[in-house]
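Anyone up for a design puzzle?
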């Protein structure tokens, strides 16, 4: 038998041997080697070869020899072993398991890392020895930090989703502009084509007219010449006197006709020539694109513009302007709760009209191009208002509960009801059809838990598929049109959310009355960032964004002023 066969046989024989204690590192490498030593600190068994590598790193660990192993019975029990099993692989040394901890660098790593990078570090420990020493405080701190980071990542992810939607809408808008420019160019070219053809037609008709006159003159002269020749031939043999007359007349006719022929012959032949304007021809030929496209880093900037008093001489009470609505381009209607009025404002935020209303108007929304729906809180009803050249009250219907925020989606009016105190009862949302019949009441979530506490404001999403509710106590709540809760979240920076309004790209603005700030929300109603805090803003109760003017309008508790801010997207 050769030496290789003997070696293989030896390995096969050794693999069949069952040792009382096996070398741990060798076992991990698939070898069956008897352990002659154990490290008490590492709780690991070593053969003599593996112990040499161990001792180079851990010079102060306690080592037991083979005789001590049998007497001390220090092989770990199953329960202890299961608690000390380490499985994570070292990122730097994939063949090694993470077993060690360097207290100096607060780092877990493998034994190779210790040997190479942490040999001189103090406080190097075998992880199973110190795992039980992990403090509850550190555990809770790390868990809280991870929870916070996770929340921030969700916010950032939501922001990125909004950025994607914004980029898509910007793309679509630019493509539409390019298509419109193309249509305008084509339309302009068609107009130029028609005018140019008309211009050529006019010249052509003028030349044709001149030619027609010459041809008619020639036709007349030809007829006269033929007639004269016939007359001369007829009288030549019969009447010498008459023949003489005809000849003399013919000579005069020749003089006239030769003059006419000379005039026609001398007249220059006119050619129609059209020269294309080279500027037009080269304008598009020299262009590769309609314009230029680039990426620009933009962060919304908010700058205070001015404040505008909207009080009128008949006002007698403090001002609670809880809602605003754009009824025509650059025209607003606002609710003056305490003074029981609706006021119409022009582009300059000057009151141009006000109408007394029997009740305290809170929220308002458009139901179509010529009608507003207004909630009357204490009268517990929805009042409709015609918004023609003059504001005028029309029909109304009872809600039967204290009502505040209101929105209109696909023919259904959604109203925020109750929740202020025990007298009002639990907060909820009611839905009414066009005739004022209750079609839905939304109180609880899918787990039959109370969904609302004090719902203040309500608004629809950009596509009308979701409904956002600002609940002063529970925060921001998102439901679908059937009342299913999609999200309920509160942000410690947004205290007592009070009013919603639409922004660009399906986003929303919401104000916090007690936190004195305004936040931007994404299309799903998740907070993106705070855009305004303090300063002129004290207890904000209503926000509205005039998209055409890029102005954010804010009203505050017990103030007769509208604060206007200019937004730079």
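Challenge accepted. My sequence:
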């Amino acid at each position: 038998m050769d030496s290789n066969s003997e070696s293989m046989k030896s390995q096969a024989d050794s693999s069949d041997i069952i040792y009382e204690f096996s070398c741990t590192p060798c076992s991990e490498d698939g070898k069956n080697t008897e352990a002659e030593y154990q490290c008490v600190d590492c709780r690991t068994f070593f053969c003599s070869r593996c112990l040499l590598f161990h001792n180079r790193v851990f010079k102060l660990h306690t080592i037991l020899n083979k005789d001590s192993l049998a007497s001390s019975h220090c092989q770990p029990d199953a329960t202890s072993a299961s608690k000390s099993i380490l499985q994570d692989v070292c990122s730097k040394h994939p063949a090694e398991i993470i077993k060690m901890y360097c207290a100096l660098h607060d780092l877990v790593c493998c034994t190779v890392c210790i040997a190479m990078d942490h040999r001189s570090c103090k406080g190097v420990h075998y992880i199973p020895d110190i795992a039980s020493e992990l403090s509850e405080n550190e555990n809770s701190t790390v868990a809280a930090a991870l929870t916070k980071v996770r929340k921030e990542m969700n916010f950032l992810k939501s922001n990125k989703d909004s950025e994607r939607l914004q980029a898509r809408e910007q793309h679509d808008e630019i493509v539409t502009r390019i298509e419109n420019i193309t249509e305008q160019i084509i339309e302009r070219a068609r107009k130029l084509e028609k005018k140019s053809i008309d211009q050529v037609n006019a010249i052509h008709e003028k030349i044709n007219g001149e030619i027609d006159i010459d041809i008619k003159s020639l036709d007349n002269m030809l007829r006269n010449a033929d007639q004269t020749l016939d007359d001369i031939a007829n009288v030549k043999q019969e009447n010498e006197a008459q023949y003489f007359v005809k000849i003399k007349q013919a000579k005069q006719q020749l003089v006239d006709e030769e003059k006419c022929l000379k005039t026609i012959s001398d007249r220059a032949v006119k050619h129609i020539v059209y020269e294309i304007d080279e500027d037009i021809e080269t304008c598009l030929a020299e262009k590769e694109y309609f314009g230029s496209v680039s990426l620009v880093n933009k962060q919304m900037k908010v700058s205070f513009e001015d404040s505008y008093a909207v009080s009128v001489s008949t006002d007698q009470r403090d001002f609670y302007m809880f809602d605003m609505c754009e009824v025509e381009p650059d025209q607003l209607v606002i609710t003056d709760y305490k003074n029981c009025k609706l006021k119409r404002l022009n582009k300059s935020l000057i009151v141009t009209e006000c109408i007394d209303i029997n009740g305290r108007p809170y929220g308002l929304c458009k139901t179509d191009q010529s009608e507003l729906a207004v909630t009357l809180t204490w009268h517990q009803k929805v009042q409709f208002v015609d918004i023609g050249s003059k504001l005028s009250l029309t029909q109304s219907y009872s809600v039967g509960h204290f009502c505040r925020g209101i929105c209109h989606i696909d023919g259904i009016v959604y109203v925020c009801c109750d929740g202020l105190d025990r007298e009002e009862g639990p907060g909820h949302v009611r839905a009414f059809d066009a005739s004022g019949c209750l079609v839905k009441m939304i109180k609880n979530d899918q787990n039959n838990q109370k969904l609302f506490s004090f719902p203040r404001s309500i608004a629809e999403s950009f596509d009308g598929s979701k409904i956002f509710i600002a609940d002063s106590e529970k925060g921001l709540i998102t439901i679908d049109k059937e009342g299913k809760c999609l999200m309920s979240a509160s942000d410690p920076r947004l205290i007592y959310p009070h009013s919603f309004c639409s922004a660009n790209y399906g986003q929303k603005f919401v104000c916090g009355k007690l936190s004195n700030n305004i936040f931007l929300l994404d299309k799903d109603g998740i907070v993106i960032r705070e855009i305004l805090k303090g300063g002129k803003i004290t207890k904000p109760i209503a926000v509205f964004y005039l998209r055409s003017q890029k102005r954010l309008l804010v009203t505050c508790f017990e103030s007769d002023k509208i604060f206007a801010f200019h937004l730079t997207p």
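A detail worth pointing out: The first helix runs from residue 3 to 15.
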